[in-house]
Amino acid sequence: DIQMTQSPSSLSASLGDRVTITCRASQSISSNLNWYQQKPGKAPKLLIYDASRLQTGVPSSFSGSGAGTDFTLTISSLQLEDFATYFCQQSDSAPQTFGQGTKVEIK
Amino acid sequence: QLQLQESGPGLVRPSETLSLTCTVSGGSVRRSSYYWAWIRQAPVKGLEWIGSMYYSGRTSYNPALKSRVTISVDTSKNQFSLNLTSLTAADTAVYYCARGPASGSGLNWFDPWGQGTLVTVSS
After folding, report:
1. How much is the pLDDT for B108?
2. How far is B49 from chain A (nearest CA, A)?
3. pLDDT of residue B65
């Protein structure tokens, strides 16, 4: 199975901060990388697919980049509603696997 | 707007079989351009893809669970279901159903997701 490693596991940030979360795959997954946001008690919500494509309805403050093994999710200006846990998921090889999550907390 | 809703028992005894149903509204499970999936989230193990099914009947299961999993579709009720046998405490998790866009590899992102249902395996 392809292992997905996110860093950091958690971070504290202030409103308006630029936040970057990294996801590394144990082998090349081309651009088959997706990002989700999950709030407590809720299902994950798709933010970015195919590494850099913004899902419809997701604010443009979110962006994704990367290819191969290293990927980044960036929030350009952190808003109150962005405090949540973020997961990456590879859809290159079965079984599809997820990162362990990055929790974004208020500083 | 497509909505998914999981239903099933919240408590199941060890060694028994879990049966969950996902009811689809605002869209049809007959759409060949999508697949239907089950994913679970346990506190320690995190998010785990269980398996996916196309309307055509093509299925794909996580090898770690393949011997215990069956996913099926009921077009008359616009539902799809998960059966997981020989349960242990390690199967305790929130179970989600989700949809994904069809692809040649059978793999893709998941959107949208149901709200999830907590399943506890305990005697």
Report:
1. 94
2. 6
3. 97
